[in-house]
Write a structure and sequence with these properties.
The protein is 38% helix and 17% strand. By secondary structure, it is of the alpha/beta class. Strand 1, helix 1 and strand 2 form a beta-alpha-beta unit. The chain binds NADP nicotinamide-adenine-dinucleotide phosphate.
Length: 321
Amino acid sequence: MEPQRRPHRICIFGGTGFVGSHLLTRLTADRHHLRVVTRNRERHHDLWVLPSLEMAEANIFDPKSLDEVLEGVDVVINLVGILNERDRGGKGFTRIHVDFPRRLVDACLSKGIRRLLHMSALGADAAYGMSHYQRTKGEGENVAHSAASIRVTSFRPSVIYGPGDSFFNRFASLLRRTPGIFPLACPQARYAPVYVGDVAEAYARAIDNSRTYGQRYDLCGPHVYTLKELVEFTAQSLGLKRKVVGLNDTLSRMQAMLLERMPGKPFSKDNYLSMQRDNVCEGPFPEVFGITPASVESIVPTYLGEQDQRAYIARLRSRRR
Ligand SMILES: NC(=O)c1ccc[n+]([C@@H]2O[C@H](COP(=O)([O-])OP(=O)(O)OC[C@H]3O[C@@H](n4cnc5c(N)ncnc54)[C@H](OP(=O)(O)O)[C@@H]3O)[C@@H](O)[C@H]2O)c1
């Protein structure tokens, strides 16, 4: 039987990003009161329209601000994460993926908050991760689970896709700008992309489900693809004729070193290192959530052609209400 859901006062860190904006829509449907913490309230005014949502501007590394935003809260969700750091060497990753969860756990303890949902990543491993991203994500996950009095659930997704994603959308934009031959680094890297709607649903169902306390869940979609297959599928969905040519390892590494010097770091050496290990799950989507995960083929073509995906998400949002 489905565990009974009751409305909570939930504080969400990282709720303004891609996953967060889908999760907020899902959680408002369960009538939770949401406090979304951001560095810049004005930049996210599209979220203000959601019912029972409060935007709080705060520096998450300032203990006083952290205390203030956690006032009156009974559930905390941490989605804060970065794929690339401004400097090199791992310090930026450590600050966001390890130091912040540590401060958050301490703040939850001092406020008596007993429920935490933490976003990690598939491949996160403090000791054996291939990249700074994976090692710091692993360390942060361990930190999140370190306090015995907090009921923690961690989520470890493969690449997440859906309207507003930065995976299929990024390749779509690169493919549009690259006529003819498309050179692709790490073409044989394997992924099992998971739909953002399924990730959001898993969070929503986990909140009151005691079976998920203390657990760490790998989340994958139903199929495994190589990166080359995913990029070819993207081109095909957009009706673009492109020849995707896989680069060998040396050229892949060189491309990473070149692109990490470009504005916005479209690809970095740390990304390259993360891709040296397959990003796929060992089992099916966790049975505890009762979700049949959607396939890439059934979702991606519905949003890839949309020019303004923020408007598309807003339309989805109004249909749900
Ligand atoms: N997308 C994927 O494919 C994927 C796969 C596996 C795991 N994950 C994990 O899922 C989480 C969400 O991913 P996403 O794709 O939604 O990311 P995103 O769109 O880049 O959003 C990141 C969020 O983190 C916050 N943030 C970033 N740097 C911050 C800082 N220095 N101080 C305070 N807040 C900061 C941002 O808040 P403001 O800008 O509003 O302050 C934003 O809401 C991350 O932890 C990521 O590692 C993502």
